[in-house]
Amino acid sequence: MKNIKKDLTSLNDFIEQNVGPEGTIEREEFETEYDTFKLGVLIQQARERKGLTQQQLAELAGTNKSYISKLEHNLKDIRFSTLQRIINEGLGGKMEIRLKF
């Protein structure tokens, strides 16, 4: 028999309680910032899997180390063309885009 803890809450419920319900300005801002954070983490993980330093990735992608660092630490907006270069030329990958409504 499973031991169910009644004090646990789902991630969605936690976010709703602490940020606000979907459709509110606060929630939209949170979702946007979270997507930016996820992108930075994905780039950092891919770079590390490739065994590249930030400097090496920057050189391959035609940008600079501080830009890569800011991107990985959620401190910088990124242009689509730069993102393509980082993924295609820097990481040797291919970007896939999905829209969700």
TrEMBL record:
Q: Which InterPro entries match?
A: Cro/C1-type_HTH, Lambda_DNA-bd_dom_sf, TransReg_Diox_bact_type
Task: Show where the HTH cro/C1-type domain sits.
Answer: 43-86
Keyword hit for DNA-binding = yes
* Stored Gene3D superfamilies: lambda repressor-like DNA-binding domains
Annotated keywords: DNA-binding
Q: List the Pfam families hit by this protein, alphabetically.
A: HTH_3
One annotated GO molecular function is: DNA binding
**Would you name any one GO CC term?**
cytosol
The protein, known as: Helix-turn-helix transcriptional regulator
Mind giving the lineage of the organism this protein is from?
A: Bacteria, Pseudomonadati, Bacteroidota, Flavobacteriia, Flavobacteriales
